[in-house]
Amino acid sequence: MPGNKFVGEFHKDSSYNHQDYELNFNVGLSNYLGQASLKTEERPNSNKFIYLECPYGETFCFDHINCMHGSEENLSDETMVSFDFRLALGKFYFESNAESIGMNTKFNKGYYFSSNIINSIN
Ligand SMILES: [Fe+2]
């Protein structure tokens, strides 16, 4: 919303126990532009930040595991609307005792991730 940040703090998702087998996708719905958009390092540990804009209907994926990312205050007068989802790549997935801090559950099938497994996309 105007005057707010949509990401609470700058972070790497690895700091919150997320694993390298995850892909994170963002889908823009409204005003995912400029300073209201996601701000991320260009490369892990580069300390060079860019805004990733995502106009309506577009999707992007970025290295949420290893790149610092967050958001600045939305200085526009429009609310930014988006959703994001994560996929665990079956080829690289492994069960562990790692837990999601935000959802207070393990990153295992049937918990943080659905129990459906897609091993390949044709
Ligand atoms: Fe994150």
Short description:
By secondary structure, the chain is mainly β.
Number of strands: 8
Query: What is the radius of gyration?
Result: 15 Å
Estimate the mean pLDDT confidence.
Answer: 92
Tell me the strand percentage band.
25-35%
The overall number of domains is 1
Helix and strand composition category:
mainly beta
Unreliable spans:
none
Calculate the terminal CA-CA distance, rounded to whole Å: 39 Å
Q: Which shape, going by the Cα principal axes?
A: globular
Spatial order of strands in the largest sheet: 4-1-6
Fraction of helical residues? under 10%
How would you characterize the largest beta sheet?
3 strands, antiparallel
List SSEs in N-to-C order. EEEEEEEE
Q: What ions, cofactors and ligands are bound? A: fe (ii) ion
- How many helices does DSSP assign? 0
Spell out the key features of this protein.
about 120 residues, mainly beta, binds fe (ii) ion, 3-stranded antiparallel beta sheet
Structure overview:
By secondary structure, the protein is mainly beta. The protein has no helices and 8 strands. A 3-stranded antiparallel sheet has the order 4-1-6, with no helix packed on it. Strand 2 (38-41) and strand 3 form a beta hairpin. The model has no long low-confidence stretch (mean pLDDT 92). Bound molecules: fe (ii) ion (FE2). Fe (ii) ion is lined by residues 11, 13, 64, 69. Residues 11, 13, 64, 69 line the site of fe (ii) ion (FE2).
Secondary-structure blueprint of this entry?
Blueprint: E1 22-30, E2 38-41, E3 49-52, E4 59-61, E5 69-70, E6 81-88, E7 99-100, E8 105-106
Antiparallel strand pairs: 1-4, 1-6, 2-3, 2-5, 7-8
Bound molecules: fe (ii) ion.
